[in-house]
Amino acid sequence: MKQTFFCVHCGASLPEGAEACPVCGKRQLPPVPAPTGRSRLAMRLLAALSLLLIAAAVILRILF
């Protein structure tokens, strides 16, 4: 399956592997790999842990 790329600055369609946009001429950021199932799970666990720590801090602040 062929992937379509767009300029991060002007939104123009880019040829695959383009370092600069043919429309606005600005350099493009390197592509970021899509998260895998394992990294998605890690991010969810990190978010849950963060919320738990915030809740604990609020409860401790109320009690003491």
From TrEMBL:
Keyword annotations of the record: Membrane, Transmembrane, Transmembrane helix
* Boundaries of every Zinc-ribbon domain copy: 6-26
InterPro entries hit by this protein: Zinc_ribbon_dom
Q: What is this protein called?
A: Zinc-ribbon domain-containing protein
Q: Name one Pfam family in it.
A: Zn_Ribbon_1
Query: Which residues are listed as membrane-spanning?
Result: 44-63
Q: Which organism is it from?
A: Candidatus Avoscillospira stercorigallinarum
